[in-house]
Specification:
Helix content: over 70%
Structural class: mainly alpha
Largest sheet: none
Length: 480
């Protein structure tokens, strides 16, 4: 047999043998997660979304996420020509790449207090302006000295650390409960698109690496100019918005809070503790940050190690970039498409809690089939590997309708930034520890199967914890 055709044929036989069983088991898990329909929801009837101010606001937040992730990832695209020109050592390169996270971890939990002091829209505009200016200054800093470059990346991380908690704070004011999955997914869909944009800029980086920083940095400044006129913290502060839309948003959110105080249902939650230690021990918040941590473990492994993995299967360096983009595109498509389906289920009567569990069932069990496949039947070609990685990262996209939206369900009015700040701080740890773990496993055991096994185990931890402890509904305000 032809040396290329034989591995492809073997992968295809495994594919046809396993896909039916995987579909059956996933379907059964989804059925169990859905359970029974809940009684008819309260609040006003569904209103049109297309052309509304809330959709325009969410699209602006989505573009913000594109810029945020492009600025975060572009250093990885530019680092090779940068190190060649500036003759950086491997130690210096590692220092530069990791310095972003030093700042990123610091400001996560500061987002909530800053939003209360200066309002969420102003905080986000200021954060984007800071990290965009740092992005523009990166080439000059790199040519000046390593210490200045590291300082620039730290300040950039300080700005980006505010982005996700503040965006969540804005979504808590603009997203009615029955549109929450869709609006959260649209806003968050900018994350994979920003990663794709940065990866596709590699030809520009190869010709003139400073241009990558200039283009994305200037895009951030332009976004700030637009946001000054277009971004508002609450619907009732916007001049010229349709009063019926403001009334619809406010009544929808008010109805959710009224349900919490009058009914003992999924929507009835006790106030979250004010003490950070007790907050971390609260089960329905622990469900969120444990799921966040476990899901990010798989995502960070894919982000950091896919090129190395594909190269080990014989993919050329020229083709790796094109391969690596595909899982993110799958992530984006499933993220947005799944949210549309889920909100339809919520409108039809599925409770928020069951909807969030359903999303996390797909997010954890779906990738687990692909990971188990990669362990039991290691792909022989990069083509089959990328199909499985698209499966892993694509089904992970439903997480934005799961734990990510669940933060809005449980946070109470005005405290979404606080909860996401804490959760995102914890969920950044896999970006550090996960990469160390993968490097250790490959250096010691040369086994990709052990790498996928760690992600598989954490997926099941996430599934069982979230299913047991998840709650959804309005909670009393908290103060962290």
């Amino acid at each position: 047999a032809h040396p290329t055709i034989e591995p492809l044929a073997r992968d295809w036989r495994v594919c046809t043998a396993c896909s039916g069983a995987a579909s059956a088991w996933l379907g059964r898990a989804v059925h169990l997660a859905m359970g029974k329909k809940s009684p008819s929801r309260g609040g006003p009837p569904e209103a049109p979304l297309w052309g509304t101010t809330r959709l325009k606001t969410v699209l602006l937040l989505s573009v913000c996420n594109v810029i945020c992730y492009a600025d975060r990832v572009n250093i990885g695209v530019a680092i090779i020509p940068m190190t060649q020109e500036l003759t950086m050592s491997k130690t210096t390169e590692t220092l530069v790449l990791s310095s972003f996270f030093w700042g990123y971890l610091v400001t996560q939990t500061l987002a909530g207090p800053l939003c209360r002091m200066y309002n969420a829209a102003n905080v986000l505009i200021g954060a984007v302006l800071v990290w965009s200016l740092m992005t523009i200054l990166t080439p000059a800093a790199a040519h000046h000295s390593t210490s200045v470059l590291v300082a620039t990346r730290v300040v950039m991380g300080l700005g980006e650390g505010l982005s996700q908690p503040v965006i969540h704070q804005l979504l808590s004011a603009w997203a009615p409960p029955i549109e929450r999955s869709r609006l959260v997914a649209i806003a968050s869909a900018g994350q994979p698109l920003g990663t794709v944009a940065a990866m596709l800029s590699s030809p520009i980086a190869a010709r003139h690496w400073p241009s990558v920083f200039y283009y994305f940095g200037i895009a951030g400044v332009i976004w700030c100019v637009v946001a000054v006129w277009s971004l508002h913290s609450r619907p009732d502060t916007v001049n010229g918005v349709d009063p019926t839309e403001v009334d619809y948003i406010e009544k929808s959110i008010t109805a959710e809070h009224d349900a919490a105080s009058t009914r003992k249902t999924d929507s009835s939650l006790p106030p979250l503790p004010t003490n950070i230690g007790k907050l971390l021990l609260t089960k329905h918040f622990a469900a969120v940050y444990i799921a966040h941590f476990c899901t990010n473990w798989s995502i960070y492994i894919v982000i950091s190690w896919v090129p190395t993995y594909l190269s080990s299967l014989g993919a050329s360096l020229k083709s790796v970039g094109g391969f690596a983009v595909m899982p993110y595109l799958c992530y984006w498509v499933i993220d947005v498409g799944w949210a549309q389906y889920l909100d339809r289920q919520i409108i039809a009567g599925t409770s928020l809690r069951r909807a969030r569990i359903l999303s996390m069932t797909v997010c954890t069990i779906g990738p687990s089939f692909a990971l188990a496949w990669m362990i039991a039947y290691p792909p022989q070609t990069p083509y089959m590997a990328i199909i499985l990685l698209c499966w892993v990262l694509g089904t992970n996209g439903t997480a934005h309708s799961g734990y990510w939206a669940n933060i809005l369900d449980i946070s109470g009015e005005g405290r979404s930034a606080d909860l996401l700040g804490v959760s995102n701080t914890i969920a950044t740890i896999p970006g550090i520890v996960g990469n160390i773990w993968v490097g250790f496993v490959l250096a010691t055991y040369d086994s990709w199967e052990l790498v996928w096994m760690s992600a598989l185990v954490l997926n099941f931890v996430s599934f069982f914890v979230f299913r047991a402890w998840c709650r959804a509904g309005a909670a009393a305000p908290i103060s962290i």
